[in-house]
Amino acid sequence: MAGTAGPEIERLIQLLAKLPGLGPRSARRAALHLMKKREALMEPLAAAMAEAAEKIRPCSTCGNLDVSDPCTVCRDPRRADGVLCVVETVGDLWALERAGAFAGKYHVLGGVLSALDGVGPDDLNLASLVERAGNGSVSEVILALNATVDGQTTAHVIADRLSHTGVSITSLARGVPVGGELDYLDDGTLAAAFRSRRPA
Amino acid sequence: MEWTDTGRIIAVRNYGETSAIVELLTPEHGRHPGLVRGGRSKAMRPILQPGNSVRAVWRARLDEHLGNYALEADSLDAGALMDDPLALSGLNAACAMAVLALPEREAHPAVYGAFEVLISSLNDIDIWPALYISWEAGLLADLGYGMDLKKCAATGQTHDLRYVSPRTGRAVCAEAGAEYADRLLALPGFMAGSGEVSPGDIAAGLKLTAHFIERRVLWPTDKVLPEARARMIERLESAGRL
C-alpha cells in the first residue's frame, strides 16, 4: 500500500485501525468509505468527533462520561437519589441503561482491582464513592460488578469500605441466564443459582 | 512442540480483542504461559478465571515460543469461591505469589501438588491459612531456599523449637533462643511439627515465609510481595483469624 496514498490518508487509516473491531484492512475499507461519502459522512463525523472531544468530560460526581458536569444521569430528577449502582466502566453503565432495569444513580469505578496489573484500591474511584454513600441521602449501594475473580474481589473490598456508612449493600444475583441451558453452565454458576433459588 | 497436562489458571491477561494470554501452574511444565485464541468469548470467559482447573494442550513451533493453548474445563472452582471474601483473598494471594515467585517453564510438581490442596481447601477457613503458609514454605524449599526446621541450629535438639534465625533460616529452640528472641523470627508450632495451630501462629507463619520469600526470591529480581497477599492478611486480621 506504500506510495498509493498520501500521508494524511495513511494517518487516517492508522488511526482508524486503532479502533476496537478494526484491523488494518477493515480500517482501509472504512477510510475509503469515508472518502467516498465525504459530505454525507466524513465531514459530519469529523465535526461530531471534534465537538465530542472538546465537550466530553468525566462527571465529577459519578465518573460517567458526558458533555455536562454533573452528567445527564446525575441531574435527572426522576432518578432515585437514595440508590447507587456501582459499575466498573461507562460501558457497563450504558449496558444497564439499555436494559432499563435501574432508575437510581450510578458510580463508575474506572476499573477493578487486579493483582496482575498492579491496580490497587487507590487507583479506583473509591474515595468519592465512600463520600457519596456516607452523605446521608443514600440508603442502598448495589455492586453491579462482573462475576469474575477480580470483579468480586473488588466488590468485597468496596463492601468493607462502606461497612461503616450503615447503608444497605447488595450485589447482582448470579444464576441461569435467559436462554441458558443447565448442561452448558459452569459449576460456579450452577452452585450460585442453587444458592439463590426462590419460590416458583 | 506439543504437550498435554492438567493445570490451574493463575493469571489471565487480555490480548487483543478476542484472545487472552493465560498462565497455568502445571505439574510437569511448571508455570507456563500460552495464548488462548477466542479467550475473551462468552464460552471461554467463565473458564478463564484464576483458580479454575483445566486440561491443557500446548502447541508451538519452537519450545521457547509463547505457543497456543487449547483448554478444556476440568474443575471450575473459582465461581464457588466468589461469595467468600476470605477464600477469594487466599486464592488471589496464592495465584499472585505463584506468578511472582515461580520461574517460567520449570517443573515444580511438589509446589503444584500443594497448590491443588490449598485451592481445594479454600472453603474451610479453619485450615487454609495454615495450608497457605505451608505452601509458601514448600515453595521456598522447592526453589532451593528452604528453611531447616527439623532441629535447633544451636543445640541440635528436635523438640521445643520456637524461633527461626532470620539470617540462616534454621530453627532455634526456646532455651537457646531466649536471649535473642527479639532478633529471631517466631516459629509457629504447626510448622515445627506439633500439628496444632495456636492463636498467633498464622500471623507468625506469614511473617516468617514473607521474610525469606522477600530476601531470597523476590528482592534479588527487584520484585516485592504482591499486594494481594497484603490484602489477604488484612482480611484475615479483620476476621480475627491471625
From TrEMBL, chain A:
Regions that span the bilayer: none
Stretches annotated zinc finger (C4-type): 59-74
InterPro entries linked: DNA_Rcmb_RecR (IPR000093), Rcmb_RecR (IPR023627), Rcmb_RecR_Znf (IPR015967), TOPRIM_dom (IPR006171), TOPRIM_RecR (IPR034137)
Residue ranges occupied by any Toprim domain in the UniProt entry: 82-177
One Pfam family here: Toprim_4
Alphabetical keyword list: DNA damage, DNA recombination, DNA repair, Metal-binding, Zinc, Zinc-finger
Protein's job: May play a role in DNA repair. It seems to be involved in an RecBC-independent recombinational process of DNA repair. It may act with RecF and RecO.
PANTHER family xrefs: RECOMBINATION PROTEIN RECR
Similarity remark: Belongs to the RecR family.
Stated name of the protein: Recombination protein RecR
TrEMBL record, chain B:
Pfam families with a match to the protein in the record: RecO_C, RecO_N
Keywords: DNA damage, DNA recombination, DNA repair
Residues annotated as domain DNA replication/recombination mediator RecO N-terminal: 1-68
Highest rank taxon of the organism: Bacteria
Family: Belongs to the RecO family.
Function: Involved in DNA repair and RecF pathway recombination.
Protein name: DNA repair protein RecO
Species annotation: Glycocaulis albus
The organism's taxonomic lineage, starting at the top: Bacteria, Pseudomonadati, Pseudomonadota, Alphaproteobacteria, Maricaulales
